Amino acid sequence: xxxxxxxxxxxxxxxxxxxxxxxxxxxxxxxxxxxxxxxxxxxxxxxxxxxxxxxxxxxxxxxxxxxxxxxxxxxxxxxxxxxxxxxxxxxxxxxxxxxxxxxxxxxxxxxxxxxxxxxxxxxxxxxxxxxxxxxxxx
Length: 138
What we know:
Cytidine Deaminase, domain 2; zinc; metal-binding; 8 strands; six-stranded mixed beta sheet; zinc ion binding; two-stranded parallel ribbon; protease; JAMM/MPN+_dom
């Protein structure tokens, strides 16, 4: 189960809407070993694509060094889907490299950049196996 604050959910959704029609992506870091998502880190989609996201390698390297210095780890790795449901694509599954992370997907397909309904789902992806999990707002 992913336990996450409504403020962090709002920040993810806002980022997804702002970047629409391109996919948005980012990380929420938390103290190592706690599983608590605390620090919102929006990233730039280096692919600048409505169907694919890619972290810039230099930005990602910098982020991991920063998290290491702060004794943090990636608790949530998120991205948006702009035209499809909030479910991991084959590409998303193949790129999932953090077995301890929650993979959050937000779909902005219904409203784009506007307020309104959105899909927000969380998954565990380990060795190519996808398991949806409950999201509990705290």
